[in-house]
Amino acid sequence: MLTQLEVATKSRAQLIDISERIEQAVQEAKIGEGVLYLFVPHTTAGILINENYDPSVAQDILDFLEKLAPRQGKYKHTEGNADSHIKTAVVGSSAIVPIQKGKLALGTWQGIFLCEFDGPRQRKVFLQLMDEGR
Amino acid sequence: MLTQLEVATKSRAQLIDISERIEQAVQEAKIGEGVLYLFVPHTTAGILINENYDPSVAQDILDFLEKLAPRQGKYKHTEGNADSHIKTAVVGSSAIVPIQKGKLALGTWQGIFLCEFDGPRQRKVFLQLMDEGR
Amino acid sequence: MLTQLEVATKSRAQLIDISERIEQAVQEAKIGEGVLYLFVPHTTAGILINENYDPSVAQDILDFLEKLAPRQGKYKHTEGNADSHIKTAVVGSSAIVPIQKGKLALGTWQGIFLCEFDGPRQRKVFLQLMDEGR
Known about the structure:
Three copies of one chain form a homotrimer.
Chain A: E1 2-8, E2 14-17, H1 19-29, E3 34-39, E4 45-51, H2 55-68, H3 82-91, E5 94-100, E6 103-104, E7 110-116, E8 122-131
Antiparallel strand pairs in A: 1-8, 2-7, 3-5, 3-8, 4-7, 5-6
């Protein structure tokens, strides 16, 4: 079962907490035990699981990535978003989360972020659910 | 089938080889062909697959990450572990490993490491197994 | 169903677009909806999904990784490929891609790359397919 979220991003670089929207999609699917696959079909946006309680953690991660691959660096790709591709490569385009008793088995402090590195744009996140109990 | 390993880490930053414990869990599950999903439900610890033969490889990876995101850097998150969140973002929170003939299809030199970045602590690793032959 | 691709790499560091070979394997498997798991059983080669339209993006990613973990850096591992292990840790050893209507659900600009960091060598990529419709 492949569904997708539409996410409107607001700035060039942004970590957007999509945990609640994903949790809702999982609950609607009524899966007891299984796995959620997350896939971002873009090359300048990725997916990340990290702390969503203190928003400064997401900001630190963005600052870190900007220092690592500065927007104004020297790159061969001439569209002005070479850094966005690199940042996406670092965080990755896919992730998995176990589902237990119908809910995401995330840790207490974990949230799921869409990572926008070349926004603002309209982005998609593919959600696929595998049901163990089928 | 979701099971979990408990891992007691011994220092602030440490790569702990959990390959044998995971292999044992897979063999006990008696799955012929399938996939193992690994998920770390923490925001300052991650999961990594890399060489476990020469322990200096794990040390080089730790040294690299410490240089990349130093503990004593400038961060907005004020709990003293902003670097641990960043290091976790770089290595990631989930991984998959194919299972073939009842065993992990790891390469000759590959091991599975829990990556502790804010220890010592008691950590969990979720293991989920999907059996193709069901 | 576990299959494998053999990939002959040509230089020490190289991103090799294996999207078409993977797409072909998926189409041969005749799966309608499902998930493709990708796993690289090596410790100095990884897997990455990013833009494959402008080849300068792959070159920028390689240049970035070389700057991040230079071949001639100071490492404890003495085989001359410590940087290759580190680069592999950054990009990762596994990925997933959804399959929809028998095809990889990749975005318009996405390609799948084997990342060689210690070549030239003969490399393997494991492909595992999970069929939702079973």
